[in-house]
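Posting this for the archive.
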Amino acid sequence: MVSSSFPTGRRFSRRSVIAGVGSVVSVGLLAACGGSVTASTSASTQATASSAAASATSAPVVSTSAASAATTSATSSVASTNVATSSAATASPAASAPANAKGAVTIQWATRTVQAWKDIWPAAVKLYQQQQPGVTVQLVGPKDSDLSAYLVAWAGGSGPDVAAMWGTNLVNAGRKGQLLIQDSYLARDKFPVDDYISYQLKAMQWQGHQFSLPMYINVYPLYYNKQLFQQKGIAVPDSTWTWQTYQDMLLKFTDKAAGTYGAPIFQDWGPGYAKAYAAGGSLEDTADPTKVGWAAQPSLDAFQWIYDRVWKDGSVVIEGTDAWKALGVKDRAQGFTAGKLAMMEEGSANPKQLADSYPQQVTDWDLAVLPKGPAKRAASGSIDAWALWSQTRNPDAVWEFNKFLQSSDYLDLQCTLGAMQHPRSSMQDRYVSLMKKTFPAMADKNLEAFADIVRNKYAYPNGGIFAQDDQCWTIFFDAYTKSIMKNQQDVKTAFEAAATQAEGVLAKG
């Protein structure tokens, strides 16, 4: 999600995914996407279970109601039987054709706390209620600083009908049966699921059932400082770049005496999981859910490539270290715009923030597609989603609202008011056009670098791929930190030991 600052909390409380920059995709695993490259001192507060339940069910802070109790086209009273499977996923309610509802319907919607959402919400509600005059959409207090509050409230029989969620909490809610299984609705309405990146949707499934659809997508191409490239007489990055080209360029821009580096990497946020896919590997074993793929040779090769850029070449500087502090910059954005960092991998949420924070340097940088790995091109992507409560009293109405949230009408609002990228491949031309038209600083930026990832569907998610997702990501992250971030263990030893540990967890079910 778009924010005005760069959160500094730890992995599971942090509300922003930052895909790693420079030679590695540094990602805040299982966190909300779209964090900024600017600095912040914000922190999350963990509520107790009882206070979370009370807070999540508090009275709406804003309400926009239809003028009359007109009938709505989206509210047949379908009872959701929600038969639990052995894994606690719920069966999909039978989808009824939206027609002939008696009386108006209220949908409680929990979005986000940051300013962009405060702008998006009233515009979205106004638009939706023009289309569905019998529906009242109420804003309820967002819990994006503690998403587990929603799970607590839903377990107690209350909570928002629709909520913004991501990461571990999204995955857990879906697998516990707290989210509405959408299979029958998707089939009935012939919903275009092929318009999304399959891996993003897969992260929002459990045992083949779709429990969420994306809010937007945040993907991570290459940012580069044009001024530095021009000064060295080097052609700017393009689609012909490979990892070897990338490696060579990182070295060319590194001059430790002058205080310049090819790119940064972040101390708290390591895992370059997309690099494993680019090398022909995978984090999961698609043939056996009790296995992981990160100790296979292609994945190990990818992690070794990252390690070498940090510890062998020294072309990537670790944020927070003495070498980083010697740069004299407050954050990555300043380091990049000031020419201390030649390149970085950041999200589609970031270009407007970068331009707003450093307007004098806005002409000094641009974007390019990620360099191709040994096997293919692969980028990190978000799993932020709209969570529909499985026990909502109005499942048909909630589904219709969810369809609206996936429509070009709504996604255009997210883009123009919050600079968020459409998650659907067919809408990438709209995204690029709207960004350039709405934000003048983006007019000459190569936003196709973002669109290319979604059009060609080569983003890989930061969560939702393991049967024991939270535990496996934690184990993976620890191995990444020990080897790549801290150089405490060699890559092969660290990841092989982590794979054995993770597979022990998965074997227990």
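Confidence is low (pLDDT under 50) at residues 1-31, 38-90. The longest helix spans residues 115-131.
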